[in-house]
């Protein structure tokens, strides 16, 4: 029996997981910038996201929010209109906020080291219907220093791809080491 451990012995790892883990560890040797150095005021990043009933289910289950307003699905039928005071099923108000981070960081660059989310303000303008496709856009609007620490402020908007309707707006600060 081979006693050597090639990967984490506490859980099985597929060949893909092993390769990705090794690539990640190797990437740590690259020169990385801080978030402050990577972002310039005026930089805008955006992505589209279709909010499927499956995505809503995964989120609602994870945060244990079983409000019937979010149910755009039913067992053995899967997709249904759902019901809420706004018509059909709606997206949990803070769900889309979780996807902002995937927009805010430029995935084509090495991940910035030493960043901490320090401030967050959200304005909800309209309920998002389940099934909508939205554009999440993050714009760097300010860089400032406070008590010797460096911060980058982003303004985030979430709009409907087709109509341009503004669903939500956020301000977020990231402290960069």
Describe this structure in words.
The protein has 177 residues and is of the alpha+beta class. The protein has a domain at 33-52 and 93-176: Hotdog Thioesterase (Thiol Ester Dehydrase, Chain A, Roll). Helices cover 18% and strands 33% of the residues. A five-stranded antiparallel beta sheet has the order 1-5-6-7-4. The longest helix has 13 residues, at 15-27. The protein is globular, with a radius of gyration of 20 Å. The N and C termini lie far apart (47 Å).
**Corresponding CATH architecture of the domain at 33-52 and 93-176:** Roll
How would a crystallographer describe the biggest sheet? Answer: 5 strands, antiparallel
Radius of gyration: 20 Å
DSSP summary, beta strand count: 7
Portion of residues within helices: 10-25%
Mean pLDDT metric? 85
* CATH domain class of the domain at 33-52 and 93-176: Alpha Beta
Overall geometry comes to globular
- Class from helix and strand fractions: alpha+beta
Give the full name of the CATH homologous superfamily of the domain at 33-52 and 93-176: Hotdog Thioesterase
What are the secondary-structure elements, in order, as H or E? HHEHEEHEEEE
Strand order of the largest sheet: 1-5-6-7-4
Q: CATH topology of the domain at 33-52 and 93-176, what is it called? A: Thiol Ester Dehydrase, Chain A
Query: Hey, roughly how much beta strand do the residues contain?
Result: 25-35%
> Unreliable runs, pLDDT <50, ≥5 residues?
none
Kindly, what is the distance between the CA atoms of the first and last residues, rounded to a whole number of angstroms?
47 Å
């Amino acid at each position: 029996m081979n006693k050597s451990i090639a990967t984490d012995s506490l859980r099985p790892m597929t060949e893909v997981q092993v390769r990705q883990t090794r690539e990640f560890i190797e990437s740590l040797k690259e020169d990385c910038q801080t978030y402050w150095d990577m972002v310039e005021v005026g930089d805008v990043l955006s992505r589209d996201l279709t909010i499927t009933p499956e995505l809503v289910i995964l989120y609602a289950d994870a945060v244990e929010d079983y409000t019937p307003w979010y149910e755009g699905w039913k067992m053995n039928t899967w997709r249904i209109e759902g019901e809420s005071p706004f018509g059909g099923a709606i997206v949990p108000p803070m769900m889309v906020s979780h996807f902002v981070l995937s927009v805010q960081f430029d995935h084509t660059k090495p991940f910035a080291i030493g960043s901490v989310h320090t401030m967050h303000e959200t304005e909800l303008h309209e309920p998002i219907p389940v099934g909508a496709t939205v554009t999440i856009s993050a714009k760097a609007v300010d860089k400032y220093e406070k008590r010797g620490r460096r911060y980058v402020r982003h303004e985030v908007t979430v709009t409907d791809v087709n109509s341009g309707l503004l669903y939500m707006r956020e301000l977020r600060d990231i402290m960069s080491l």
